[in-house]
Design a protein that fits this description.
The complex is a heterodimer of chains A (119) and B (117).
Chain A lengths: L2 E3 L4 E5 L4 E3 L2 E3 L5 E8 L6 E7 L7 E2 L2 E6 L4 E6 L8 E9 L10 E3 L3 E6 L1
Parallel strand pairs in A: 2-12
Antiparallel strand pairs in A: 1-4, 3-9, 5-6, 5-10, 7-8, 8-9, 10-11, 10-12
Chain B lengths: L4 E3 L2 E4 L5 E6 L6 E7 L6 E7 L2 E5 L6 E5 L5 E5 L8 E8 L12 E2 L3 E5 L1
Parallel strand pairs in B: 2-11
Antiparallel strand pairs in B: 1-3, 3-8, 4-5, 4-9, 5-6, 7-8, 9-10, 9-11
Classes of the chains: A mainly beta (119), B mainly beta (117).
């Protein structure tokens, strides 16, 4: 069974601080995808980043970066120089890869981390 | 480029009633997934539709049913509403016509907030 854990329920930082959101996942699949989504008060989940299970290279995209470590089943997400507009609930999600016997995909989401960036 | 649109935005029903929620996928997408998000929790997968058929289902009772139309839009129906069905219902669309894993990003609508009294 797949499971995603986000141990941090709420985080508060002051603007311009760096903040890291933790994510730990469980899956028996060898091929899978990991995602981070942001949910502002409007409710819409906004796609941020995706990483597949074969690529552990960590990257930076603007103020966002992520640290994927298969050995510890973790996929942490960092926002550098946080801004007030970054305040939202952040969800880590896991998706198994589709295959010829099952095109269906089931995204499993963690419980979310509420980030508050104070001015 | 229109994103995922859902209607209505808010809905109030009473126990035992039936409700229908609607979703139009992002332009070019052919797969629609539905999620239930209770207050303070992450979204829970309900089911996914492709080519007008349900191709995967989460752990939800048969009271939850759906439909996909030839234009790829979708409806979520919930019968015999319970107080516990109160939640934000999210629709997500993706392109699911092949095994190209690069296309498995799901794009979400703003959701329909259902309150059952």
């Amino acid at each position: 069974a797949q499971k995603v854990t986000q141990a941090q329920t709420e985080i508060s930082v002051v603007e311009k601080e760096d903040v890291t959101l933790d994510c730990v996942y469980e899956t028996r699949d060898t091929t899978y995808y990991l995602f981070w989504y942001k949910q502002p008060p409007s409710g819409e989940l906004v796609f941020l980043i995706r990483r597949n299970s074969f690529d552990e290279q960590n990257e930076i995209s603007g103020r966002y970066s992520w640290n994927f470590q298969k050995s510890t089943s973790s996929f942490n997400f960092t926002i550098t120089a946080s801004q007030v507009v970054d305040s939202a609930v952040y969800f880590c999600a896991l998706s198994e890869a589709p295959h010829r016997d099952n095109y269906g995909q089931n995204f499993v989401f963690g419980p979310g981390t509420r980030l508050s960036v104070l001015p | 480029d229109a994103g995922v649109t859902q209607s209505p935005t808010h809905l109030i029903k009473t126990r035992g009633q039936q409700v229908t929620l609607r979703c139009s996928p992002k332009s070019g997408h052919d797969t629609v997934s539905w999620y239930q998000q209770a207050l303070g929790q992450g979204p829970q997968f309900i089911f996914q539709y492709y080519e007008e058929e349900e191709r995967q289902r989460g752990n939800f009772p048969d009271r939850f049913s759906g439909h996909q139309f030839p234009n790829y839009s979708s409806e979520l129906n919930v019968n015999a509403l319970l107080l516990g069905d109160s939640a934000l219902y999210l629709c997500a669309s993706s392109l699911g016509t092949d095994l190209d894993l690069a296309k498995n990003i799901q794009y979400f609508g703003a959701g329909t907030r259902l309150s059952v009294l």
